[in-house]
Fold Hydroxymethylglutaryl-CoA synthase.
Amino acid sequence: INLNIGIDKIGFYTPHTFIDMVKLAEARGVDPAKYTIGIGQEKMAVSPVTQDAVTLAANAALRILDEEDLEKIDLVVFGTESGIDSSKAAAVYVHDLLGIQSRARSIEIKQACYGATAGIQLAKGHIALHPESRVLVLGSDISRYGLNTPGEVTQGAGAVAMVISADPRILSLGDQSAYLTNDVMDFWRPTYSDTAYVDGKFSNEQYISFFLNTWKQFKSQTDLSIKDFEAMCFHLPYTKMGMKAMREIFVEGTSEDEERLTRHYKNSTLYNKTVGNIYTGSLYLSLISLLEQDETLKPGDRIGLFSYGSGAVGEFFTGILQPEYKEALAEAEHAKLFAEREEVSIEEYEEIFSEVLPVDGSNLQLTIENDPAMICVAGIEEHKRIYVNKN
Ligand code: CAA
């Protein structure tokens, strides 16, 4: 069995519009420092009606796949909690939109924000059995709590796409992993609701408790401790959350460990601060932010990863940075994506938020000219979403 399996490519996509959190705070009559410091968010991606979980994921994958990937990918795993269909997997649409060869398995996985991590673990097993294969793992979501709710400040939209392979160029994933399931109602979304229900304080407590449990379990499974980690990346519903969890383990290390992990943590939150919560993709957006924005990391460094999906499943695992990791990143693409985004006013955001696809089965045709994304939703005809690849 080939144990050198991991992330060979990683890219993301976020919609072209965003709002400024200071302006949101002003509109809601809240001290802006609560949002920018207390929560730790600066901008929030706003998804137009012409994007959904499928198109966000397809747009993310489009940025990283080449012809060889399209021929070698034989498993597409789509993690999401913003599914568009109760039966058909979002992965099947993406498989078609990208032109992946047909001898492939395409499935959707659901467990709140944990879905993409489940996809990676499944991919590792698949590659161990079929070392020549490549697996496309997607994490794509639109986070919606509703206007004027406490969760509003922690919304966002976007997707991460990863190619998992043998001898990966970016991050080799360790074979040790610590995971935990416990049935708790901290955050959920019944099938009749397009916004999430959440017990905010309880969800923060569960997140930290799952982190401490899996961290302890991981240490007992390995001979690793806090000093062995150059950096740690967290699922980031908002950027303060990971720090709240990480500081709980600082007592186990020296002040040097605390300084190092805190310094890297800042870089791992830069992208998330301007995108918001993208649920399944958030941990991996944080990893992209760290790898692209941190100039002090080097090949051989060990990075810890904590995934949390409310409800709840948590997992702590690690990866080792590979020699050519910098060259394998899509940094310039991502810088361009951020630079081309447009700010919308709070009034415009509220209007965009209320524009949703009909849920009564009626047809609708959308204008996609205003959405610069390559792949868009063009409407609904006879209960089928119409996807367009402008290429
Ligand atoms: N200046 C600086 N800081 C301020 C401030 C000010 N003027 N006013 C308040 N703050 C601080 C508070 O002290 C607090 O900090 P600490 O948490 O460090 O104590 C922080 O801002 C938030 O303040 P509140 O706790 O009063 O905020 P809130 O009650 O409005 O709710 C929230 C915050 C619970 C995160 C809410 O936004 C929410 O429910 N969000 C959705 C749920 C969520 O993201 N949960 C995370 C864990 S679950 C998960 O990870 C899965 C997932 O993706 C959903």
Remarks:
- The longest helix spans residues 200-221.
- The chain is about 35% helix and 25% strand.
- The first strand starts at residue 5 and ends at 13.
